[in-house]
Amino acid sequence: MSGRYDEHDHEHYERPRRRTRPRTKERPQYDDAVDAVVTTVDRGRFTLRVGGEVDGVRVWAVKARPLGRKGVVVGDRVRVVGDVSGDEGALARIVEVQDRATVLRRTADDDDPVERVLVANADQLVVVTALADPEPRPRLIDRALVAAYDAGMKPLLCLTKADLADPETLLATYRSLGVPWVVTQRGADLGELRDRLAGRTSVMIGHSGVGKSTLVNALVPDADREIGQVNAVTGRGRHTSTSAIMLALPEHHGAAGWIIDTPGIRSFGLAHVRPEDLIEAFPDLDEMTEDCPRGCTHAADEPECGLDEAVARGEADPERVESFRRLLEARSGPEY
């Protein structure tokens, strides 16, 4: 009895095998790549300034496949290849994300372990808050300060609507921490704020309605950021900025700079911040905790904390210690 198939039947032949190029550990060098800075991120498309300078050519780009899931955020310094002419329809590719000097991050909630990187490579965090309409939210300000210290960024309080309320009440809360501040009001000169921003990369954050977009439009005349109104019933502002954008500041006293406008925030989770990292932002207090018991968080209820002993000896300012502990509590306390 002969077999079911002979050599002429098609099922006699082996199935075709996938033909793929052998893998290699060699990666493209991209010797022709140019430097750029990310100014906006929108659904997988990126706007860049080639050269990384405020007067660089604006180009559009996508992320190269070898970067995989590596995130690219506003402020990132990247290397790009492709069409970097900036002409309409031109598209480049981001092939490398350079090491970040600073990272501003937050978690959605205090019990959320997932960190979200907001901005990279900024050196100053400008916390914008209105003195009235809407009322200040010190707990949210505290959380923003904690995020700044944790990121290694210099904080700056920018108090708006000074024509509606006296700034001294709020400033007294933060003076002992040594946080610098500027006070503004609608239509007033912004020279002091421009001085603070010149030559730096600054991130502006604040909840909706505090006048952040108004400031950005005044600082960068062609920014055209939408301005919202405060709800008369809830006392809260309407979100107008929907994504972060990095804008070049006009030269001031011979120094240029960048400002990053962010959407209005309603929460600022700090699950990623550790007490030992926070106190390092206050070298004078950190020095006083060298003899603390192991595991001491430096909170007010910690026994034998070096901060309490320093206050008792008259070596520490009680108000400064109290203010630092308020920041500690802000990591997990209510936001409003």
Q: What do you see in this structure?
A:
The protein is an alpha/beta fold. The protein folds into three domains: 34-97, OB fold (Dihydrolipoamide Acetyltransferase, E2P) (Beta Barrel), CATH 2.40.50; 103-261, P-loop containing nucleotide triphosphate hydrolases (Rossmann fold, 3-Layer(aba) Sandwich); 275-330, Ribonucleotide Reductase Protein R1, domain 1, CATH 1.10.40. The chain contains eight helices and 13 strands. The strands form three sheets. The chain has a six-stranded mixed sheet with strand order 10-9-8-11-13-12. Strands 1-2-3-5-4 form a five-stranded mixed barrel. A hairpin with a 2-residue loop joins strand 1 (34-42) and strand 2. Helix 1 (138-151) packs across helix 8 (318-330). The protein is globular. It starts with 33 loop residues before the first strand and ends in a 6-residue tail after the last helix. Residues 228-241 have low confidence and may be disordered.
Give keywords:
single chain; 336 residues; alpha/beta; OB fold (Dihydrolipoamide Acetyltransferase, E2P); Rossmann fold; Ribonucleotide Reductase Protein R1, domain 1; 6-stranded mixed sheet; 8 helices; 13 strands
Q: What is the CA–CA distance across the termini?
A: 89 Å
Number of domains: 3
Which consecutive residue ranges, at least 5 long each, have pLDDT under 50?
Answer: 228-241
Mean pLDDT across residues: 85
Q: How would you spell out the order of helices and strands?
A: EEEEEEEEHEHEHEHEEHHHH
CATH superfamily of the largest domain: P-loop containing nucleotide triphosphate hydrolases
Beta-strand percent range: 15-25%
CATH class of the largest domain: Alpha Beta
The helicity comes to 10-25%
- CATH level 3 topology of the largest domain: Rossmann fold
Major beta-sheet overview = 6 strands, mixed
Instruction: Kindly name the structural category.
Output: alpha/beta
Which of globular, elongated, flat, extended, rod-shaped describes the shape?
globular
